[in-house]
Amino acid sequence: MKSKSTELAVVLVSGGMDSLVSAAIANEAHESLAFLHLNYGQNTEDKEFECFQKIAEFYNVPESLQKVIDITFLKQIGGSSLTDDQIEVKKYHGDSEEIPDSYVPFRNTHIISMAVSWAEVIGAKKIYIGAVEEDSSGYPDCRPSYYQAMNALIKQGTKDGDIEVITPVIDLSKDQIVKKAVELKAPIAASWSCYEKEDKACGVCDSCALRLRGFEKAGLEDPIEYHQRPKYT
């Protein structure tokens, strides 16, 4: 078994399944983790924060290495169905090459910038984020080329230039992410993917559809509750 690095790593933990699996992978590679969560005025902010807390507890991340930052200025900016009350969360209508209105303009850049700032302060050299290329046709800040550019920027704009963003699930499909979660014994029931509801997942938004399809392809049942569970395969 490969020994773990003693180097502290920051993990961006939204509370979603992709960030959960990224945390599980980081936990396999590092002895110590720091968890960062961002509240940006999203519809399911309270539920995502609850999931963040459960995941942090599961991985024994001390409170001193848990940070929650308010970036609700993204809600002020709006332009996304996740943050703007005037834009309805759309139901899934199949795969599309168009950028969906759930895209939060330039969100990941704000989030990564916060993580890099914190990493410099606490001495972390790796930042894990659960970006998935499968989502990249919709989200420009989930493309591998975006992270290559971001790492080049971090190298130029930090004190020592040795902080790197790691994207451990970027090449995985949703069913592979589900299987990886099971393999690493990650607490899937503590994750949340729905864009709209907090009591039970809606089952019909884009994010719920991708998640449910991933579980179907993996031959497993999602342990969280849904208002409805359509078949997507």
Characterization of this structure:
- The chain is of the alpha/beta class.
- The chain has one domain: HUPs (Rossmann fold), CATH 3.40.50.
- Helix content is 36%, strand content 9%.
- The chain is built from 7 helices and 5 strands.
- It has helices at 17-29, 45-58, 73-77, 107-122, 144-157, 174-183, 206-218; strands at 9-12, 33-39, 66-70, 126-128, 164-166.
- Strands 3-2-1-4-5 form a 5-stranded parallel beta sheet, with helices on both faces.
- Helix 1 (17-29) packs across helix 6.
- The chain is globular.
- The model has no long low-confidence stretch (mean pLDDT 90).
Estimate the strand proportion: 5-15%
**Helix/strand order:** EHEHEHHEHEHH
Instruction: Return the CATH architecture.
Output: 3-Layer(aba) Sandwich
Please report the first level of CATH classification, the CATH class: Alpha Beta
- Total number of beta strands: 5
What share of residues is helical? 25-40%
| CATH topology term | Rossmann fold
Largest β-sheet summary: 5 strands, parallel
Rg measurement, Å: 17 Å
Multimeric organization: single chain
Q: CATH homologous superfamily name?
A: HUPs
